[in-house]
Fold:
Amino acid sequence: MLKKRLLTIGACVAALTIGASPALANDGYNLWLAPAASPSGANVRVIGQSETLERAAGELRRDLGASPLPIILAKIDDPALSTLRLPTAGLGEEGYIVRATSLDGHPALIVTGKTDRAVLYGAFALIRAQKTGANLAAIDLQSAPKIGLRVLNHWDNLDGSVERGYAGQSLWDWWTLPDFKDPRYTDYARANAALGINGIVLNNVNAKPESLTAPYIAKAAALADVFRPWGIRVYLSARFSAPIELGHLKTADPLDPEVQAWWKAKADEIYREIPDFGGFLVKANSEGQPGPRDYHRSHADGANMLAAAVAPHGGIVMWRAFVYAETDPDDRAKQAYTEFHPLDGKFADNVLVQVKNGAIDFQPREPFHPLFGAMPKTPMMLELQLTKEYLGFATHLAYLGPLFEEVLDADTQAKGKGSTVAKVVDGSLYGHRLSGIAGVANVGRDRDWSGSTFNQANWYAFGRLAWDPTLSAEKIAREWAQQTFGTDPLVVDTAVRMMMSSREAVVDYTGPFGLAHLMGTGHHYGPGPWISDLARPEWNPVYYHKADKAGIGFDRTKTGSNAIAQYEPAVARMLADPRTTPESELLWFHHLPWGWKMKSGRTLWEEMVAHYDRGVATVAQMQADWQTVKDKVDAERWQKTASYLQIQHNEAKWWRDASLAYWMSVNGLPLPSGVAAPEHDLAWYKAQEFPLAPGHPH
Ligand code: BDP
Structure:
């Protein structure tokens, strides 16, 4: 009897580990790291010793399916590999080689690189290659990251909430750290290492001074210990006024010797606990945060003071250029450039200036930020937002790969044609030693980490593009889908099709043609294009669209704010004329009559309506597509995705209806014939309130 029961249990375990049946529950916890159905097990040998090499071997033993060749992990300078004469040029510290070859007369699959970190990346690359269909018997991969600092920014607060977080509470349980190291911290590090992410900023840019106190440094050190074997360093957001709040100084003036000494001592204290601490991220003089401007000092003065404190330890400072001031009447889109451009050449050589992809704020579509290419002497870090503050929170399916690709491929023309943002960011355009890219994390304590299965793809895409910004968003979508859902072509093709149309759908139903910042106040949930009563002008959606009876759009040409002059002359010339401006950015740069003739021959108004409708229709299409894979995806992830698509459909329609109701109240125009009227009147949309929407800072 007992034996029979054991057998049954054994059978169940086997069924669970095989995991092939789509009917089995899958809560998404494994991300892109699903264990192999029949793992390669003991066929992996490590030459040399380090915790990181052991982790690499562990990953292969768990996640790699049967390998046709024995696998050998070793650093490239290990004498055991010397007969192979592997090429080391261009590998750098983190590049790997994965090659099927013959070692001392025996066929073997070599995973190697100059450092154990590189070998770890090679191991993950091998797993990825297998899961995406490569023939391991003939594998020959060589890759090195193009960008040095590949960093996630957590906007996590010390009380466990996450600013703009839609995937549950913060992963970090600050209260039980440093004593309790939740196993999830390790799983988190693995997932990041698999993508090559090598830095994590632990706390919100709107930083509390407490994160720099001894108890919190100890907590950060505990996380650093967990992350270290995975090649990941920790960083902290620093509050500029900490010398006053923690050090009881009278000032935080960066030129004050006592302030400088305080920061130096603080950095020394951190490095005693975290010897490989990465450095500081700083949001200064932005949205109420303290900064050097409070003392009539420049951003360079502030950044350089912190840079001097971490420099002896090899640390860096990531200084954000996301600044705009209530006292500045100029176009908000111009303010960061105005403030930072004159500072080129004034930053210490361990400072990177971190610039959001666009000049306003992570909107569904923004033209590239004019600072890219405009500060040749300063390493520019690109900041992207993975958490979908403006693209439907956790519930909307919006694959951001195309958004990231669009900005990386954008041509600044700073050194002639082909001076892409990617080349600015990877340091190659101006030959910088430091280069970096940051993503505002979309991770929390939800079982599936990111609030939905498809949101995981945004984390994945960020990591892959950070490694190689020339990869295509579509290729990344495909490899993600294969690792996430398996290789059934119907599932993969369907997922990729949905993903590739999804971001444009959000643009269409929230505001096409470069309209931006039309959302509800504070929580940023849902439409609010009518909002005009907030204290600061640039907080109001009406500031951005400037719609009136005659037309719509923000004139950023020389008859308006002349923001276009911040771009290279060749780019500015193109943007000066609405006929040569890409239509996707038309109303960002121009104020045009509702009757403006679009390339399609239709009027601007007709075309806007068509785009709102197309956005809603694309979501309906995603719903229909998802139905076709119902029997091929596990029930748990399928159902959650289906339910979220329904939410998205409802909310897309809400955005469309509310926006059209408002635009019609402004322009007095009828809807083109055959177009459905908004479900409610404008007053109804205006009356909606969401005080409990998630992610809202407090
Ligand atoms: C905006 C967010 C706000 C952030 C700010 C920032 O609404 O919560 O603090 O950006 O990046 O997108 O500093």
